[in-house]
Amino acid sequence: MIDDRGTPGWDDAVGAPRFGCETERDRDRAVLRLIGDLAMETEAEVRSAFVALLDQGLTAIVVDMRGVAFLDSSGMGFLAFAERMAAMHGMSLVVAGLRAEPRKALETAGLAGLFVIED
What we know:
Elements: E1 10-11, E2 16-17, E3 19-26, E4 29-36, H1 43-51, E5 60-67, H2 73-88, E6 92-96, H3 100-108, E7 116-118
Parallel strand pairs: 4-5, 5-6, 6-7
Antiparallel strand pairs: 1-2, 3-4
Helix pairs in contact: 1-2
């Protein structure tokens, strides 16, 4: 999933972004760790993993984006969806580890203020 420079890249064999999504739970908090582009091609997988966490009695979900180098409008749509759903379920959502490009995309779209963002 990570190229030799330590960043997400393309899977040249299939011409698609390499992507990984894993969850880790610690008591009443879960971390959804993303690696690769959060884009149209990967949004459904992330949404599915997120939705699976909603009814587990959590108080917080952290979307760890340290491994995300690119964020498109579909990825931003997922984050807005995640914020709404977390609030509806009485949880907090934290977006953590934003790299420069995804942070700039959120700021340019005027969405950065919707989320609790932690470095």
